[in-house]
Every structure is written in structure tokens, then in C-alpha cells.
Amino acid sequence: MAVRSPQTSAEWSAYYQLRYEVLRQPWQQPVGSERVPEDEDPATVHALCLMPTDAVAGVGMLQSAGQGRGQIRFMAVAPAWQGHGIGRELLGYLEEVATQLGYAEIVLHARQAAVPFYVRLGYAIVAPSHTLFGSIPHFLMSKELAQ
Ligand SMILES: CC(C)(COP(=O)(O)OP(=O)(O)OC[C@H]1O[C@@H](n2cnc3c(N)ncnc32)[C@H](O)[C@@H]1OP(=O)(O)O)[C@@H](O)C(=O)NCCC(=O)NCCS
Which PROSITE patterns does this UniProt record tie to the protein (predicted)? Predict the structure, then answer.
């Protein structure tokens, strides 16, 4: 597998499609709800995980959160590939880029079901945060990056 930024228009389409299918469609959210203005920020980094077949198995993004911090958002692995190390690869890639960009810390708002994944990869719960779509509790989590 390879983790890198989307390059072709087909890869960008597959990138947003997977984000929609995993994080929006199961809650009957409209197409387009998977995109945010920060996607277009030049400081934002997008990552996708490509399998040898060119299938996109996972996606994630890193944006600036100010004050020397990066924020990871929209981590999504295709259901068929979950539990095979793809989330770990994506997170590792985004953390490496965050270190190169000089961020000292990563923050994120994790869905309750994903909290054990982030704990496994070194993140700590800071506080409960918002509830998405009236039903998905989130937790603010953070991890300091080695400089
Ligand atoms: C959460 C998600 C991104 C994790 O990606 P993944 O590819 O399934 O996870 P990995 O296989 O890379 O797991 C890495 C480690 O975390 C552990 N882990 C992953 N999900 C876990 C869970 N729900 N509970 C406990 N441990 C978990 C794995 O066992 C693995 O640890 P190990 O090396 O000791 O076996 C992915 O499952 C997903 O997209 N879920 C649905 C959408 C979602 O919740 N996204 C996050 C929004 S905040």
C-alpha cells in the first residue's frame, strides 16, 4: 500500500467519495456534507491510502489548528479494509507531515467508537466534545509530537 496526497481528478473524487461513504452516508447526510472550507486551505494536507489495485482504502486530512498545533480530521477506512493497519499508516503519514510542518501537537475530535484506535496510537483524551448528528459522541484528544 502507498500513502500520499491525491494527485489526479479521479483520485480526488475517490478521496471525497470514501469520506462520504464512511462518515456521512450511514447517517443519511447529503452529498457535499463531507466537504469543509478547510479542505481548500493551502496549509491543509490530504492523504489517501492506495492499494496495489489502485483502490482507495483509506483517507485522512491534517489542517492547522493555530498555536503550533495541527488537527487531524475525516479519518476513514473502507469497511472491507478496517482492522488491517491502514488507519495506522494514514495517521503515521499525517503525523510525519505535521512534524515537518513544525507542529508541536496534534489535536482531533474522535468519534467514541474510534477512541481506542487513537489511544492505541498514543493519543490521550482531553475532554468530551460535541455530539454529531444528535447521536455520535466525540472526544477531544491530543498527542505531542517529538521535535
Ligand atoms: C477508526 C479507523 C480510522 C481505524 O482504522 P483501521 O485501519 O481500522 O485501524 P488499524 O487497523 O490501523 O488499527 C491500528 C491499531 O488500533 C487498534 N484498533 C483499531 N480500531 C480499534 C477499535 N475500534 N477498538 C480497539 N482497537 C482498535 C487495532 O487493533 C490496531 O492495534 P494493534 O496493532 O495492536 O492490532 C477505521 O476503523 C474507520 O474508518 N472507522 C470508521 C470511521 C471512523 O470512526 N473514523 C474516525 C472518525 S474520528
Answer: GNAT
